[in-house]
Design goal:
By secondary structure, the chain is α/β, with parallel strands linked by helices. It has one domain: Vaccinia Virus protein VP39 (Rossmann fold), CATH 3.40.50. The chain has 8 helices and 12 strands. Strand 9 and strand 10 form a beta hairpin.
Amino acid sequence: MKFNSSINTETSIDGFLDNSFFAVQPQKGNHRSGLDAVLLAATISENARGRLADLGSGCGVVGMAIAQRCLDVHVDLFELNPKCVNYTRQSLDLSQNAHLKDRVSVEQADITVSGDERQDSGLLANTYDHIVSNPPYNDQNHQVSPMEEKAQAHVLEGDTLLKWVKTASYIAKHKAELTLIMRPENLPELLVVLEGRFGSVKIKPVQATSKAPAFLMLVRAVKGGKAPLQILPPIPMRDLPTTDDAHDMSMQMEEISRGRACLEL
C-alpha cells in the first residue's frame, strides 16, 4: 500500500491505493495514516456526487483517497493542527497529485467551535452531501501519549464528540450522510450525541480476524434519518493464520487497500 520516499528527517512521502496518490506525513508517531484511513475512505461509493467534508482530516489521506476514487466529489478538508495542514498542502502540490488538486481543498479549523467561528473557518451551514471523520477515538481512560499532538489526535475529552457531531449536523444538508470510524467503547456516547441530529444508524464492526472481537467500528448515519439502527456483518482485516505465525490480509481488505473495491454501508 505504501511507497516511502523521504523529504526530510521529519516527513516521508507515502503512496496509497497502489500509489495512485501520495501523502506527506510525519516519519513516525502521531497523525500517520494507515488501513483505518483507507477503510473510512472506502465507505464512500464511487458513484457519489456533490461536496464532502472531512472533519479532523489529519494529513489528508482520507479525503485524497475519496477524491481519487470518486470523480464527481469535491472534498474539503478541515484540520486544527497547523503542521498537518501544511503537510496536506505539500501533498496537494506534489506533481503525482496534480489530478486531485482541483477537487481537494484544506482549511485550518477547530471543529469544536460554534456560531460565527464556524463560518470564519469555512464550516458553512447546509453545505455538504457527505461528511466523514476519524475523530479522537480513545477516551481518557486509555493511556495518554506523552506527545501533546498525538494526544490531541487520539483522545476524546469531555464533550468533544458532542461538539464534533454538532458541527457535522450544522454543515450537513438534509439527508446528508455522516460516516465515522471509532472504537466500540465509544458507541454509547456516540448514539446519545447523534440523537435528534442523525438517524438511520448503521454500524459495521472491524475485526483483526473473524475470531477476534471488533476493535474498530464504521458508523454511517443520515441527517434526519428515521430508520431503525442496524448492525451489519463485520469485516475482518486479516484471514485466520495458515501457519502458527502467518496472518495474510483478507482478500476484501487487499482489494480495498489497492483502491479496487469500496465498502458501502
